Amino acid sequence: MIRTMLITLAAFAAISAANAQQSGIERQQLLQQDGPGDFQTLVVMLQFVPGAREARHTHPGAVAGYVLDGTLTLEHEGRPTTKYNAGQAFYVEPGKVHLAINETNAPLKFLATLVVEKGKPPSSPAP
After folding, report:
1. pTM value?
2. Beta strand segments in 15-121, E
3. How far is Cα 87 from Cα 66, in angstroms, rounded to an integer?
4. Rounded to the nearest 5°, which phi and psi values hold at 14?
């Protein structure tokens, strides 16, 4: 269990370092919980300043998101680009390339819940 936690923390550190170049995005891990089974559940709050955008990336497990404030534009492999407003939820399948963008002049805040296999990095950059 400690080994899994250390791997997860190292992965988040690497992701945070990579995302440090993505100015205007703040990530706060709210929960890291083992389960279900050989998976791990992570809940992260993300805040984007106006105009901020993530780098294209994937997750080894599913992501369910919920917009708290603002409007999220989601580019998602295999789907049309979609806008989600406060109070709306979205889903990204495992392995699908995607990125979140705040195209508005107002701050954006949303929650992302990831369910990933233990020992795998929760996020990987995509070409």
Report:
1. 0.81
2. 25-34, 39-48, 57-58, 62-69, 71-76, 82-85, 89-92, 98-101, 108-117
3. 7
4. -65, -45
The side-by-side arrangement of strands in the sheet containing 98-101 is 82-85, 71-76, 98-101, 57-58, 124-125
Residue pair 54/25 in contact by the 8 Å Cβ criterion: yes
Q: What is the pLDDT of residues 28-76, one digit of tens each?
A: 999 999 998 999 999 999 999 999 999 999 999 999 999 999 999 999 9
Q: Could you please state the CATH topology (level 3) that the domain comprising 2-119 is classified under.
A: Jelly Rolls (2.60.120)
- CA–CA separation, 111 vs 30, rounded Å? 9
Contact (CB, 8 A) for 50 and 102: yes
